[in-house]
UniProtKB/TrEMBL annotation:
Domain of life: Eukaryota
UniProt organism field: Phlebia brevispora
Name the record gives this protein: Uncharacterized protein
Length: 169
């Protein structure tokens, strides 16, 4: 049985297993404090497991308590609004920030996770479309195939890897 240790507070990249697209905010956004959508954007470079240490691709994971995390993209914490994932920039929207549980899916790979709301009622789901670029991440009920070990659709599995600085091995 594989033991999974909590991910340490640090910077990571998050990639949809279904498409190999990075999960992130758009590089060019309106200059307002309105919530910003989170999308699948840009394919993972072939042969490179870690994207350069680029602010546009980074997620900050901060463990808060009981295995729960606050997730931030481009410095803004994320949460569910209307069934979609948003980054919240304004103090006015702080009530919308969610606590997330990272559930290892070792049968898929060592860096594979479900990302679920703290109560495990709903989680992140990427688009199942053939061309998923620029598709918002949905937040909805996770589908589990009853098997041992459990099986999840690739749209529900995300690859979370530590970000590396330029030149790092």
């Amino acid at each position: 049985m594989t033991v999974h240790h909590p991910l340490p507070d640090s910077h990571y990249t998050i990639v949809s297993q279904a498409s190999d697209y990075f999960v992130r905010r758009k590089p060019f956004e309106t200059l307002t404090l309105l919530p910003k959508g989170v999308f699948t954007l840009d394919r993972t470079p072939k042969g490179d497991e870690h994207v350069r240490y680029d602010w546009n691709f980074l997620w900050q994971l901060e463990q808060i308590h009981n295995g729960l995390y606050k997730l931030k993209v481009k410095g803004a914490p994320v949460g569910n609004r209307g069934g979609h994932l948003y980054a919240f920039l304004s103090e006015h929207d702080q009530h919308s920030i969610s606590e997330w549980r990272l559930v290892p899916v070792p049968q898929v790979g060592k860096d594979a996770y479900l990302i679920e709301l703290h109560d495990q009622s709903i989680g992140w789901v990427a688009s199942a479309e053939k061309a998923p670029k620029d598709k918002e991440i949905e937040v909805k009920r996770i589908i589990v195939e009853p098997s041992q070990p459990p099986k999840y659709p690739p749209t529900e599995v995300f690859i979370i890897k530590p970000a590396k600085h330029e030149g790092e091995q």
